[in-house]
Design a protein that fits this description.
Elements (H helix, E strand, L loop, with lengths): L2 H27 L6 H8 L3 H4 L6 H21 L6 H18 L1 H9 L1 H7 L6 H17 L3 H21 L6 H10 L8
Helix pairs in contact: 1-2, 1-4, 1-6, 4-5, 4-8, 5-6, 5-8, 5-9, 5-10, 6-7, 6-9
């Protein structure tokens, strides 16, 4: 191995450690309180060394969101079923459970500026791509408008998971299932 290959690997390893530490820190304090210096300390490097990998906090948050979205996307992919409605119910259950267990991570995943930017297609977001694909399958199966269906489905998942995360609602699997079924009547094409 050449010296530059070893250096590139160390750089990649450090970047991955920073992203992993950022996700862990978000779970502890929330994305809005994440600091580059705390992440650097968690990785045993100086805060200025972070800037070699991320020019600012927003870029680190975007990388943390991408990593978290990919991780949750893999877990969601395991819930895919032949019927897209069942797939989307599985994803919704995953996210509501995440709201109970890791509310700050869910906040990063659904409500951070980088997550909101992904809604209009300006950010990378593996979980959202998976959901959009299942919504398209469900829309085709039930002759629904995919854009309308995605909007109401994602709004419900965001709102319900936020209510569960804050304790304003108790997770009710029957309500979740019934609501997901009701979505097949919204956005019928004329």
């Amino acid at each position: 191995m050449t010296r530059s290959e070893g250096g590139d690997r160390r750089t990649t390893d450090t970047r991955e450690r920073l992203v992993s530490a950022a996700v862990e820190r978000v779970d502890e304090v929330g994305w809005d309180r994440l600091s580059l210096s705390a992440v650097a300390r968690a990785c045993g490097i100086s805060p200025p060394a972070c800037y070699k990998h991320f020019p600012d906090r927003e870029h680190l948050l975007a990388a943390a969101l991408l990593a978290l979205s990919a991780q949750v996307g893999r877990r969601a992919r395991a819930r895919l079923r032949p019927d897209p409605q069942d797939s989307l119910l599985g994803v919704a259950r995953l996210l509501v459970t995440m709201a109970q267990e890791h509310p700050r991570l869910l906040d990063l995943l659904l409500f951070s500026p980088a997550a909101l930017a992904a809604l209009d297609g300006t950010g990378r977001y593996p979980l959202l791509d998976l959901v959009r694909g299942e919504v398209a399958r469900m829309a085709a199966r039930h002759d629904l408008d995919a854009t309308t269906l995605f909007t109401v489905l994602w709004a419900f998942i965001q709102g319900y998971s936020r209510l569960v995360a804050t304790g304003a609602a108790t997770y009710d699997t029957d309500l979740l299932r019934q609501t997901m079924k009701a979505f097949t009547t919204i956005g019928k094409r004329p």
